[in-house]
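Summary of Year 1 activities. Much of the first year was spent building the evaluation harness for sequence design. The harness presents a backbone, in tokenized form, and records the residue chosen at every position. We chose the following record to illustrate the format because it has been used consistently in internal testing since the harness was completed.
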């Protein structure tokens, strides 16, 4: 039996509440064209594993623990709102991160290397530190250079939100349900010295 899995840093409750507040500011501009991530489901994904056999869980967990052992806790600040690929054609609305982002990128690269040796496909794009707030539906009014959503994103591009410390690397199971994805911790490992 296979499970859908990924590796992420979990956010403290106060950070999720702050992100929910940002979503409320953006929601009127996005309308029904944006599927917002439930605040309790927002996390900092470092590696999406896809569908894996349950036998691979332990191997992935061991490599995750090795990567965590080489990285001290990370101090990160949520700052600015943006969109991939850009505000004129938003597909993913996100909050950016500052602070220990270089160490965060090294942790992501370490995980990438360790897991690729186990046969997990490498990411097709470079790691970008962000927290996903919502996804724009394919054919929505929220697209275009002068969209209300694009303007709202630009207006919040310099927003200072909250600083938090990431201390734990988690291997999650993701189950897609009609009400949204449900995440279950499979394994968790403290970062070095935390």
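For this record, the design step produced the sequence shown next.
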């Amino acid at each position: 039996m296979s499970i859908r899995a990924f590796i992420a840093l979990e956010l403290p409750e106060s950070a999720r509440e702050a992100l929910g507040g940002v979503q409320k500011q953006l929601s009127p501009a996005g309308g029904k064209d944006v599927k917002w991530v439930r605040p309790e489901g927002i996390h900092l994904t470092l590696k999406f594993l896809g569908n894996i056999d349950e036998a691979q869980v332990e191997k992935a967990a061991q490599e995750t623990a090795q990567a965590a052992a080489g990285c001290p806790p990370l101090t990160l600040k949520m700052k600015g709102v943006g969109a991939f690929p850009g505000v004129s054609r938003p597909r993913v609305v996100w909050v950016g991160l500052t602070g220990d982002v270089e160490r965060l990128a090294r942790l992501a690269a370490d995980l990438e290397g360790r897991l690729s040796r186990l046969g997990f496909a490498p990411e097709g794009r470079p790691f970008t530190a962000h927290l996903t707030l919502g996804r724009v539906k394919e054919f929505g009014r929220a697209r275009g250079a002068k969209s209300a959503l694009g303007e709202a994103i630009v207006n919040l591009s310099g927003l200072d939100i909250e600083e938090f410390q990431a201390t734990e690397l988690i291997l999650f199971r993701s189950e897609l349900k009609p009400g949204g994805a449900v995440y279950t911790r499979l394994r968790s490992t403290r970062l070095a010295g935390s």
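The longest strand covers residues 43-53. Quantitative recovery figures across the full test set are reported in Table 2.
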